[in-house]
Amino acid sequence: MSDQPPIDQPHRIVEESADVETAREQEENQAAIELSRPSKKGMLSMDVKVHSPFKSYYEGEAFSVSGENETGEFDILPTHHNFITLLSPCELIIRSPKGDQKIQISGGIMHVKADKVVVFLDV
């Protein structure tokens, strides 16, 4: 008998790794949901701040933020994974309990972490 492991064992290890990754993703998703807070209207929301060095364009609660980067249009919703991107010239749309706010931008940087979205313009 050989001391080498069976040929199918590496395949089994890969499957176990996939199971561990799935469990980790489930834990992260659950943590994000628990950190999210319902808004006054009962929907999940996030904190959003859009500002430039000399002006604040928006600061408050929002249900989503839509923008555009080099790869195309995108939306940020509550419980979104950590994300950072350079924004292309576009119309930034913030959907909030007060209604939609549209801000025409020439570019900027967006940072998303733990249901907080910060957009830096004119940098």
Number of domains: 1
User: If you compute it from the alpha carbons, what radius of gyration comes out, rounded to the nearest whole angstrom?
Assistant: 21 Å
The main sheet comes to: 6 strands, mixed
The helix tally amounts to 1
What share of the residues does DSSP label as strand, in percent? over 45%
Total strands: the figure is 10
Please estimate the helix content.
10-25%
Low-confidence stretches: 8-18
CATH architecture: Sandwich
Q: What is the CATH level 1 assignment? A: Mainly Beta
Mean pLDDT: 81
Query: Distance N terminus to C terminus?
Result: 68 Å
Topology readout:
Blueprint lengths: L8 H27 L1 E2 L5 E9 L2 E8 L1 E6 L2 E5 L6 E5 L2 E7 L2 E7 L2 E6 L2 E6 L2
Parallel strand pairs: 2-10
Antiparallel strand pairs: 1-2, 2-3, 4-5, 4-7, 6-9, 7-8, 9-10
